[in-house]
Structure formats: C-alpha cells, structure tokens
C-alpha cells in the first residue's frame, strides 16, 4: 500500500522548522502534527453523519451514552457528563436542546424523589439506533484505508499511548516551560473523535 502523499504538509512544516531552528528536534511533529490533521479530518467526516440526523457531535454523544446504558435508557445528569467528558453546565445545554426536540425527557429517578434522570424517548431511541448504525458504517469506511494488520497495530500503539498519558506518565527530564505541546493543552471547544 502506498502511504506517501505527493504533498506532505507536515513534512514541509518540519523542513521549514529544521531550516529556521536547527537547534531544536522537531521529530515529534511527524507524529503529533499528523494526528492533529487526522483528528480534524475524521471529526469532519463523522460530523457529516450526525448532521444527516439533525444532530451535532454533542447531541449524538448524549443519545449514544443513554442508549449504551440499556433499558430504560436513562442516566443521571452527572453520570452523563462523566460519560461524555464535558462539564455539567455544557451537559445541561445539550439536554435542553434534545428535550426541545422530543428526543429525551427529564424525570424523577425511581426510588429517589430527590434525584433526576435524563431518559431517551421512543423517538430518541429510534433516532440513535439509526444514527449509530450509520456512524459505524462510516467508521468502517474510514478505516478501510488500512488493512487488518495495520489497523490492529495502530490500535495497539494508540491504546498504549493513551493509557500512559491518562496515567500521568511523563518523561523525568520533561521541562514544563519548554516541553509544552503546540496548543498548550486540551481545548474543549475543539471537536474530538469518538467511537460511541
């Protein structure tokens, strides 16, 4: 399989930095830069499916988290926020939009009159089942550019890297002042790639 593109944007950026800052090792850009570009591309491709069902990424995430819970397809707002990695304030806005659309409802939790849950409506259940089916077809399409062995190797590498980053593993020689990545941390306003 031919991997090299005629116009490699990341390689061009690296070459320019090597010329301008030969004192710095810009090797990590070969990985990080390409992951950034892939993330943007994948997010745009995934969003096309969400849009077909009248959803944004955030709304899709909420419906998917409720569907994964199993019948009666409900979760507490705080649990939903944790499953979708957003603040409770952001979750409230998402649920408000979905409730206005008739896709979810808020109700008192069974056995706890003080507690509230968010639950899928029948319309919400039908929509997320259709949307998730299309979403998985889309993900299979995007991964079709890799053969089975390449996809398995990539999954292994990404999983190992994610576990190490999530665990707070850092090189002992890392300098917080000079070792920051280009964007200085996560920006919650930027799209993320999900496989809900």
**Total of DSSP H or I helical runs spanning 4+ residues:** 7
Written as H for each helix and E for each strand, in order along the chain, the element string is HHHEHHEEHH
How much of the sequence is in beta strands? 5-15%
The strand line-up of the biggest sheet is 1-3-2
Global mean pLDDT: 85
CATH architecture: Orthogonal Bundle
Instruction: Give the CA-based shape.
Output: elongated
Question: Please, how many domains?
Answer: 1
Q: Let me know the CATH homologous superfamily.
A: Winged helix-like DNA-binding domain superfamily/Winged helix DNA-binding domain
CATH domain fold name: Arc Repressor Mutant, subunit A
Low-confidence stretches: 176-193
> Kindly, what is the distance between the CA atoms of the first and last residues, rounded to a whole number of angstroms?
29 Å
Radius of gyration in whole Å, from Cα? 21 Å
* Beta-strand segment tally: 3
CATH hierarchy, class:
Mainly Alpha
Q: How can the largest sheet be summarized?
A: 3 strands, antiparallel
Which class do the helix and strand fractions yield? mainly alpha
Verbal overview:
The chain is mainly alpha-helical and 196 residues long. It has one domain (27-166): Winged helix-like DNA-binding domain superfamily/Winged helix DNA-binding domain (Arc Repressor Mutant, subunit A), CATH 1.10.10.10. It is 56% helix and 9% strand. It is built from seven helices and three strands. The protein has a three-stranded antiparallel β-sheet with strand order 1-3-2. Strand 2 and strand 3 form a beta hairpin. The longest helix has 24 residues, at 29-52.
């Amino acid at each position: 399989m031919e991997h090299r593109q005629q116009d490699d944007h990341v390689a061009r950026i690296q070459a320019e930095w090597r010329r301008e800052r030969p004192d710095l090792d810009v090797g990590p850009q070969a990985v990080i830069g390409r992951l950034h570009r892939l993330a943007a591309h994948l997010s745009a491709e995934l969003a096309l499916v969400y849009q077909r069902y009248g959803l944004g990424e955030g709304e899709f995430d909420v419906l998917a988290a409720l569907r994964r819970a199993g019948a009666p397809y409900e979760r507490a707002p705080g649990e939903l926020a944790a499953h979708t990695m957003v603040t409770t304030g952001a979750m409230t806005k998402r649920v408000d939009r979905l409730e206005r659309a008739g896709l979810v409802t808020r109700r008192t939790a069974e056995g706890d009159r003080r507690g509230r849950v968010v639950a899928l409506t029948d319309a919400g259940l039908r929509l997320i089942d259709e949307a998730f089916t299309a979403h998985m077809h889309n993900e299979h399409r995007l991964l079709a550019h890799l053969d089975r062995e390449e996809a398995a190797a990539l999954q292994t590498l990404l999983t190992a890297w994610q576990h190490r980053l999530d665990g707070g593993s850092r090189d002992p020689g890392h300098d917080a002042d000079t070792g920051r990545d280009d964007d200085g941390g996560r920006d919650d306003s930027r799209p993320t790639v999900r496989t809900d």
